[in-house]
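Per reviewer request, we include the raw input and output of the structure prediction for the construct analysed in the revised manuscript.
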Amino acid sequence: MQISREKTEHISGYDRVVKFLREQLLSGELKAGDSLLPERDLSAKLGVSRPVLREALRALAMIGAVEIRHGVGTVVTKPDVSILGEFFTFVLAHQPNVVDDVMQARIAIERQATRLACRRAVQSDYDRLAACLSDIVDTIHIPESGGLADFRFHEAIVNASGSPTLINMYQSISVLMHRSHLDRREQIIQLEGIEEFLIDHHRAIFAAIVDRNEEKADELLGRHFEIGADFRRRATIRMVGGAPFAN
């Protein structure tokens, strides 16, 4: 019974520390570079023991929310989203059909990001998209490089949205998406019409974004995913020696 009570108190204290930091960040009371109160003062303020406070701060340091500097104290830092990406990769890797499920998340993020890119993109975004499009053309016959070029193009669209939330969500699943790009490219590269699809469709999406035509860009991107899924189904039939789908 005593063990259970200590465990409950421990969790409560830990959550209190995490909640405090989260609310301070959201309210703007704390920002990257700020130092937390000294350990003794902070434990008293939050009503938690110093061992619990230390454990909570170590956990926060592991995700990059704070940095514990010996002789200085605990400093608020801006977490590296790649850490979150690694976490998501390990969590989602246990789920069946994870790549297909991640694709659905990707579609949702990219379609909204494309609309925002039509409103917010600046010349540097257009230049980055143009460079990615050029890479797609140059690597069309190289599955690994081509898959990466394709991923970079879509990533550039999300970055052009100017939405930190969408960008961070996209980056958090980027490892799995990069893998899906490569897997699909290896499957479909031998199909008739794939080169035209990969080049022409990306070029049309790029043009619609530059023209700031939200409806057209969104429609093209939605169609892009539909055609890509159709090519993948056709590749599956081809792999087992069946007849290709009729056009």
